[in-house]
Amino acid sequence: MNWKVFITRRISAEGLEVLRKADVNIDLHDEHEPPPRAEMLARIHDCDGVIITGGEGVDAAFFSGAPKLKVVSCHAVGYDNVDVAEATRRHIVVTNTPDVLTDACADLTWALILGVARRVVEGDHLARSGQWRGLSPTLFLGTEVSGKTLGIVGAGRIGVAVAKRAKGFSMPILYMARTAKPDMDALGAKRVTFDEILRESDFLSVHVPLTTETRHLFGEAEFRRMKPTARFINMARGPVHDEAALARALREGWIAGAGLDVYEHEPKIDPELVRLPNALLLPHIGSATVETRRRMAILAAQNLLAVLRSEPCPNVVNPAAT
Ligand code: NAP
Q1: What confidence tens digit (pLDDT) does each residue in 64-82 have?
Q2: pLDDT exceeding 90 applies to what percent of the chain?
Q3: What is the pLDDT of residue 55?
Q4: Which residues does 175 contact at the CB level (< 8 Å), separation at least 6?
Q5: Is position 237 annotated as part of the catalytic site?
Q6: Residues in CB range of 131: below 8 A, 6 or more apart
Q7: Average pLDDT of 175-183?
């Protein structure tokens, strides 16, 4: 069967190879950015499947533009950019790439934790600036990480992987969850209420998916309940926090710092946040290692093929569509 598949932007060659071996007719938008919306709709009109990444909005108009579409394969674990209910209604299967990116995201969460705690980026800028006057007992005093309390909101794959790494820093771990999390319990982490995690965490790390329930989970009221010495870390999705409230919290000292990989209106970042030295900002690169992106591309291609071939696929997010 000669399926046609549109890929919205450049992905690892190994993923393309999986599709080529299956004789798929690939229309690859071989750029770092996806094409303009109108061009994308034109290119998907005769496609059986698409591979998309995190930024593309996949909604009713997208589906209407692709009457043959059977599968939307997300080259991501988060699929908040896809109208899954609408896909299900049209019997279009949506898949994602869990697990293969967990370690990369957990590692980078730790880069944010350590970077914010020890003012790594500020130190780098001074070292390069020609303004450094030499060793000083008062230069860039940060805060200790070892022994501090780590709070995890979103105790899933990435949250657990972040908690595992915290054991090496002898940190008491708290987590907030809607359902039992045996993996967290096995690490000796303590399940607490949302109020407790806000009040007791020295580092509060967010790993929930973006849903109607988690949108603006962290706003003014929540930042005000945190310790003034606390650091807020978001490796999940930007709209989980209220960015204007976060900028105010950092400027006015309700909390001490933030490490962010994600923003409310990507790629725009609140200009105030950009000016604040106690915010460490990364450009949504949680899973951006060569190895992980290779695994994501391969898995996205395998998921897509499994659906087109009506084979079992473990990574379907809307089984009701099948
Ligand atoms: P996961 O295994 O599904 O973990 C998410 C956890 O959040 C689940 O344990 C879920 O548990 C919990 N959760 C959901 N809603 C909640 C709520 N309202 N309150 C408390 N807990 C809630 O997903 P993952 O693989 O760890 O990925 C987590 C998220 O990270 C993804 O959805 C994605 O948005 C983000 N991510 C970002 C990057 C990046 O580049 N920055 C890369 C990969 C992933 P229950 O459903 O049992 O409550």
Answers
A1: 999 999 999 999 999 999 9
A2: 98
A3: 86
A4: 151, 152, 153, 155, 159, 163, 181, 184, 189, 190, 191, 192, 197
A5: yes
A6: none
A7: 97
Alpha carbon distance 233, 255 (integer Å): 11
- Written as six digits, the tokens of 26 are 């690939």
Active-site residue (options: 9, 43, 231, 237) = 237
The residue assigned the tokens 């579409």 is: 69
Check if 213 has its Cβ closer than 6 Å to any atom of ligand 1: yes
Q: How far apart are CA 186 and CA 42, in angstroms?
A: 51
pLDDT at 319: 97
Whether 266 is catalytic is: yes
Q: Which of 90, 248, 284, 294 is catalytic?
A: 284
Q: What is the pLDDT of residues 117-132, one digit of tens each?
A: 999 999 999 999 999 9
- Per DSSP, the residues of 195-248 read HHHHHH-SEEEE-PPP-TTTTTSBSHHHHHHS-TT-EEEE-S-GGGB-HHHHHH
Residue 231, CA atoms < 13 Å, CB-side half-sphere: 26
Q: What is the average pLDDT across 153-164?
A: 98
Q: Is the pLDDT of residue 212 over 90?
A: yes
Q: Report the alpha-carbon distance of residue 261 to residue 206 in Å, rounded.
A: 11
The structure's pTM equals: 0.98
284 is catalytic: yes
Q: Report the distance separating Cα 199 and Cα 78, nearest Å.
A: 28
Nearest Cα residue to atom 25 of ligand 1: 157
